[in-house]
Amino acid sequence: MAEAKTKKTYYLGTGRRKTSVARVRLSEGSGKLSINGRQLDEYFTEDKDRSAVTGPLELTGMRARLDVAVTVQGGGFTGQGAAICQGVARALKAMFGLPTQAAEEETVNSMAKKLRDSAYLTRHGRMKERKKYGRKGARKSFQFSKR
Prior knowledge:
Blueprint (H helix, E strand, L loop, with lengths): L10 E7 L2 E9 L4 E3 L2 E2 H4 L3 H14 L5 E8 L3 H20 L8 H13 L30
Parallel strand pairs: 3-5
Antiparallel strand pairs: 1-2, 2-5, 3-4
Helix pairs in contact: 2-3, 3-4
């Protein structure tokens, strides 16, 4: 008789930075990390972007125990890296935010506190300012002429 397949539990998180939006799905696994169907090293060429993505996982010590599937769109590579970082941190917070026993509650709070103190849960709201009517750009104006 075949064994009944157990359902995987997924933890979701959404991260944003500038115009980039990342949807992150965490599940128990062997540590695979895929971004838009590609491996981390294929997608991000710079080390700072790779370390931004894996930062929350390294901080909590879950890098080798969780599979991460990310769908990201919009913006550039640095913005996407920061969006994925926030999405992973939010998914980890959702994962640690559900204590099963009273004894684990202090571990849960400490993990969420670690993420918050390291600023992984903070949204960086800086965006490009839009061009204004009657101006050359967002702030630059045309040269003033008295005559």
